[in-house]
Amino acid sequence: MNIGKQRPSILDKSLSRGKTEVSLTAYALLFSEMVQYSHNRVNSVNELHNKLSELGQRVGIRMVELLFVREKNYKRETKLLNILLFIKVTLWKSLFGKEAEKLDRATDDERIYYLIEKEPLVNRFISVPRDKSSINCAAFVAGIVEAVLNATGFPAKVTALWHKGTTYMIKFDESVIARDKQLDGR
Amino acid sequence: MSRQNLRAIDPKKVSGELFTLTYGSLVAQLLKDYENVEEVNRQLERIGYNIGMRLIEDFLARANPGRCYDFRDTADKIQQAFKLYLGVSPSIGSWSPGGDEFSVVLDPNPLTEFVELPDHLQNLRYSNVLPGVIRGAAEMVQIEVLASFIADSLKGDNITEIRVKFVKRLEDAVPAGED
């Protein structure tokens, strides 16, 4: 069909500088369609969260590539705290135009961190049905965070909870904590 | 610190990259779920149609565009809406002699910033949500149109072009239910 046409490679284009903006309405309606699409294909709240997380993960993986080239000058993060700050500051600013509100550490489990956001962009126009009040569509954002952590070598599971607005609970793999302690020891 | 951090925050706007990547993730999900490119094209159009039906309300409230007296008015308003919602100004042109058909030429297409079609997906109409939005929005103001891509720079064409054709005015339309 396209024989004879030379398609320019995407790598010949210069990298997006991240300055373009679209209207919030357009984004909200697109996201709403994604939630409805996902909702029609699942049987439980848990499955819906997984589906939204999966959609977010594809975004997260690409953001890692983009931000480490554009904002971090190809330099990777090796420390746990630094990658969390990267997410709270750099990633959040690129995606949502502001930092996430708060980063906390669980007092009883050193593997668990909390990233807190009062009103996630994706939840602004979503009203949760009363009989399914545990639905939190920020599972999409949790997916983004999880993919960023996995792609940068900090395997973790991230879930979105209703707590002080929305709290993303980040539970790191045991190996991440062990490695971080080892790095600290040097 | 990067310059990006100095960007003024407009609460009515979101990052174009977030939008592009989110849309891309949806397309990838559809490809995974349907495993059939034609069906994905159809689904994307339908998603666009649903968005268009709701978007028109926002457009009427925000831009106060007034009535369309002919199809050229409609074309102008579609152009205006692209600017308002996607931040791009497509050119309108290639009118048919009867004035019932025109082209919307997108340069750039904000949906395809990071996109390259693999060889086995050459039949995918990646941005098929856009003609769907046009059809859905027009239907809500009682204009039935046909809209589809006739050229796409993702497929090696020089431009990205959506053809919009007037079909008929809908009289006394009952509001369409949600599909």
Summarize the helices and strands and which ones pair or pack.
The complex is a heterodimer of chains A (186) and B (179).
Chain A: E1 21-23, H1 24-39, H2 45-70, H3 80-96, E2 102-105, E3 112-117, H4 139-151, E4 156-162, E5 166-172, H5 174-185
Antiparallel strand pairs in A: 2-3, 3-5, 4-5
Helix pairs in contact in A: 2-4
Chain B: E1 13-15, H1 16-34, H2 37-63, H3 71-86, E2 91-93, E3 101-106, H4 129-140, E4 143-151, E5 160-169
Antiparallel strand pairs in B: 2-3, 3-5, 4-5
Helix pairs in contact in B: 1-2, 2-4
Subunit structure (chain B): Homodimer.
Pfam family, one (chain B): TRAPP
Family (chain B): Belongs to the TRAPP small subunits family. BET3 subfamily.
In short:
The complex is a heterodimer of chains A (186) and B (179). With 186 residues, chain A is α+β, with helices and mostly antiparallel strands. Chain A has five helices and five strands.
